[in-house]
Amino acid sequence: MSLWEYANPQKFMQLSRRALPWVTVAATLCLIGGLTWGFFGTPDDYKQGSTVKIIYLHVPAAMMAINAWVMMLVASLVWLIRRHHVSALAAKAAAPVGLTFTLIALATGALWGQPMWGTWWAWDPRLTSFLILTLFYLGYIALWQAVDDPDTAADLTGVLCIVGSVFALLSRYAVNFWNQGLHQGASLSLDKKENVADVFWFPLLVCIAGFVLLFLTLVLLRTRTEIRARRLSALLARERMG
């Protein structure tokens, strides 16, 4: 069976209908379990105190803000190359979810940064590129709303997504590109020395899994809604022509 079969709206609707209950339950369990474990089952940090526990919201949200844009990029490329409507609608559906994660990451980062850095905001390379990524999210959503023809909107937003991917990359690797800045390095790394302590690391992994599953749940729901809206629009157009 080819993966491209699920670019067919009918098959996508069938698959997503079966998958959604399982994904939703898994997301709920991981989020409740991970956040409860993280906020109530881990000790205060010897340097940052209880403030460190914001990591369970900030890190997963920041990761998903960037990865959501990567998913939009892949879906947009599929649309631009193969003209599968489901991929364009999936990219459109993911944008508000990714924007929400981005805003959560910015807000929790400010709450975390103020006691650590003594300021709510700094023009740090990673923070600045993340702010620009937020503007790209807003522009992407606005462009979909501004263009009436859906195929033209998908083409234009696909190009915008490719351009914005540069800033998604900068957001992820800014600390590696520039040694300057207040922002710390990665909390999760293949280098054991850079990882947070195991007592924080394990619940953080559960929280990340919860955010990934939450993103998948919301994108599936929103893509299904977009497909239904497209079908309804087509039916109304036929009635007007008839």
Description:
The chain is mainly alpha-helical and 242 residues long. It has one domain (19-41, 50-180, 199-241). 77% of the residues lie in helices and 0% in strands. It contains six helices and no strands. It is globular and about 70 Å long. The two termini are 39 Å apart.
Question: What's the structural blueprint in terms of helices and strands?
Answer:
Layout lengths: L8 H32 L14 H28 L2 H33 L7 H22 L3 H28 L20 H44 L1
Helix pairs in contact: 1-6, 2-3, 2-5, 2-6, 3-4, 3-6, 4-5
Index terms:
77% helix; 242 residues; globular; single chain; mainly alpha
The portion of residues forming beta strands comes to under 5%
Coarse shape: globular
- End-to-end distance, in Å? 39 Å
Question: Could you describe the largest sheet, including whether it forms a barrel?
Answer: none
Helical percentage: over 70%
| SSE class | mainly alpha
Radius of gyration: 20 Å
Overall mean pLDDT stands at 84
- Give, in order, the helices and strands: HHHHHH
By DSSP (H or I, 4+ residues per run), the number of helices equals: 6
Can you count the beta strands? 0
| Whole-number count of domains | 1
State the low-pLDDT regions, or none: none
